[in-house]
Design goal:
The protein is mainly β. The chain folds into two domains: 379 residues, YVTN repeat-like/Quinoprotein amine dehydrogenase (Methylamine Dehydrogenase, Chain H); 166 residues, Beta Barrel (Cyclophilin), CATH 2.40.100. It contains seven helices and 36 strands. Strand 12 and strand 13 form a beta hairpin. Helix 5 packs across helix 6. The longest helix is centred in the middle third of the chain and has 16 residues. It is elongated, with a radius of gyration of 29 Å. It starts with a strand and ends with a strand.
């Protein structure tokens, strides 16, 4: 995370370079000339540790649950999470004392769920779709209470009533004009009760109600930011501390030629934040409209952090390269959910998803103090929603200490995933049965996936289960696992039958670790699968790198398997869930150890070529 300098920032950074030492002589000496500035101390957030205890901290998500299609929306309402997917389905999830419970499922829209908005009191949820439909739900009872058909395509929606108001005011913007319509959801009428003129000349793409001041913050497709009063629908001149926008930084997005697809307001109403389209997180002071912070999350900033020495922001080069590739694909894709930034309940922290994981940034000390989900290198989290309360318990559970009852939970949807991921302060449980693991199969996979799986399983029945690698040092007999990893076995055995591996050298040999081969180029950079492209990992809980003689696929990151493979010479548990185990050595481990002892150069390549003569396949 790199912060760009803003002229209104009042947080002083530590000086870079050598520090000025105090004079140590008994008698003070007269100093001639200008005095150097005193070293400024970084501000410290009091009780930071206590505040962080109220946020999720686990490195891995505890559970994930399925939708039938890609999830694009996730919000929190009181003790409930609500998720929406591209097939128009909504799901309600209830926060339990520990973990999550499925509550209700709706086929809400014919088209994709374009946006979800929850009222400030957590009682109402609205969903809109490009099919011009609007659905209003009672969150506590999970009931669908209002259905509206609009004469226009909606773009954004927001509840704009304050606690105690009789009318449930709901603002909806048009996708093809700058108009905003206000409805009274309590009547169920599709006739608006008011229209907001505002200062926008382009479609409004995001709205957020600031209940503390009774104002609505809106942004449009040109990057313009506007305020208006939720009661009078006029500019709140008696509320804010400026008269003209020229006195603020509300033109910052337009100047940068970017937009703010989502907005979040701090609980005290003093700040609002947006993860902008230019991959910068901007935090504004509400009353003055001034920029408080700008955090740079562009690819250039990520590369700079990767080259730095702070281990919090660094990844293995292979892992970083894969994430960068996904990031480029994400930025070029259309119709994918845009990342959002949110405040915690204290208004001292901002959370937002990046290619490293979900960053937790302390706004007082101006530093990133935690990255949630950094090790989840196969998921690119996008939308996030945070729960920090204490769920209602049964009478028996009420006997527990209330302080320890808080179970902060972060819900995330990810790029091209059918799952919603829940992070807590607990790591996932280790279980033997994969079906009982952290990824819950609460939905039947799509039909095309089932057909593909059936084809793979039927092919696995006829696949060889034993392979003998004939090398220039001797024979290595291996048991294969086509039932657990059919695609990997199909790739390996097809290459073996076709003579792809014949004559290839063991190009990488590391004593006390493994021997690697399968690259036609002989330098670790070549080789491809039988399909001509990389294929996915096939992890199985019963197949681990827990012993010498483990046959596993080499890769350049998740789901980048080609033709290269390796055989371990010691247990290597750190490779679990990173490389696909697809076989075990059952005879010829002495040959493996003989190859392992070969003298190598600085690149771990043996001085004397050790080659595969051919690979024999057996059905036994």
């Amino acid at each position: 995370m790199v912060e760009t300098q803003t002229p209104v920032s009042n947080i002083h950074e530590e000086d870079v370079g050598p520090k000025i030492e105090e004079m140590r002589s008994d008698e003070p000496e007269e100093v001639v000339g200008p005095q150097p500035p005193k070293t400024k101390k970084r501000k410290v957030l009091e009780f930071e540790t206590n505040f962080l205890d109220g946020l999720p901290s686990a490195e891995m998500y505890e559970k994930s649950y399925m939708h039938r299609d890609e999830i694009t929306q996730v919000v929190t309402a009181g003790e409930y999470f609500i998720t929406g997917s591209v097939d128009g389905h909504l799901k309600f999830w209830r926060k339990m004392p520990q973990g999550i419970e499925f509550a209700k499922h709706y086929r809400a829209h014919v088209g994709s769920v374009h946006a979800l908005a929850v009222s400030h009191d957590g009682l109402w949820c609205v969903s809109i779709s490009k099919d011009c439909s609007v659905k209003v739900f009672d969150v506590v009872s999970y009931d669908l209470v209002v259905m509206m058909k609009l004469p226009y395509v909606p773009e954004a929606a927001e509840w704009i009533y304050r606690r105690g108001e009789s009318r449930l005011k709901l603002a909806i913007s048009e996708a093809e004009s700058s108009r905003i319509h206000v409805y009274d959801a309590s009547t169920g009428s599709s006739e608006p009760i008011a229209a907001v003129a505002g200062s926008h000349s382009s479609p409004v793409i995001a709205m957020k109600f600031n209940e503390a001041y009774g104002c609505v913050i809106t942004t449009d497709s040109k990057g313009m930011i506007d305020y208006w009063d939720a009661a009078s629908f006029e500019f709140p001149k008696d509320t804010v501390h400026f008269e003209y926008k020229l006195d603020t930084d509300m033109y910052a997005l337009a100047k940068a030629k970017t937009t703010a697809p989502a907005i979040d307001v701090s609980r005290d109403g003093s700040k609002f934040v947006s993860f902008c389209a230019d991959r910068k997180v901007r935090i504004f002071k509400f009353l003055t409209g001034k920029l408080l912070r700008t955090y740079d999350e562009t690819m250039e900033a990520a590369n700079e952090l990767q080259r730095g020495e702070n281990e919090l922001f660094r990844l293995e080069n292979i892992d970083f390269g894969r994430r960068v590739a996904v990031e480029r694909e994400l930025m070029a894709a259309e119709g994918v959910p845009t990342p959002n930034a949110i405040f915690d309940e204290t208004s001292n922290f901002v959370l937002y998803p990046t290619l490293l994981g979900v960053k937790v940034v302390n706004l007082v000390s101006n530093r990133c103090c935690r990255i949630i989900g950094k090790v989840e290198n196969t998921e690119r989290f996008l939308k996030i929603a945070l729960y920090q309360g204490a769920p209602k318990k049964t009478k028996k559970a009420d006997l527990e200490a209330k302080v320890s009852e808080r179970d902060p939970t972060l819900a995330c949807c990810a790029y091209r995933r059918h799952r919603v991921y829940f992070f807590s302060r607990r790591m996932p449980e280790e279980v033997e049965d994969a079906a009982a693991g952290r990824d819950v199969f609460n939905e039947k996979p799509p039909e095309d996936e089932l057909l593909a799986e059936e084809a793979i399983q039927s092919a696995a029945v006829s696949m060889p289960r034993v392979a003998i690698i004939h090398t220039t040092k001797g024979d290595i007999k291996m048991k294969l696992y086509p039932d657990e990893c059919p695609k990997t076995i199909e790739n390996f055995t097809t290459h073996s039958r076709n003579g792809y591996y014949d004559g290839l050298i063991f190009h990488r040999v590391i004593k006390g670790f493994m021997i690697q081969t399968g690259d036609p180029l002989g330098d670790g950079t070549g080789g491809q699968s039988i399909w001509g492209e990389e294929f996915g990992d096939e992890f199985d809980r019963s197949l681990r790198h827990d012993r010498p003689g483990t046959l596993s696929m080499a890769n350049a990151g998740p789901n980048t398997n080609g033709s290269q493979f390796f055989i371990t010479t010691v247990p290597t548990p750190w490779l679990d869930n990173k490389h696909t185990v697809f076989g075990r050595v059952v005879k010829g481990m002495d040959v493996v150890q003989l190859i392992e002892k070969a003298k190598t150069d600085k690149n771990d390549k043996p001085f004397e070529d050790i080659k595969i003569v051919n690979i024999e396949l057996l059905d036994e």
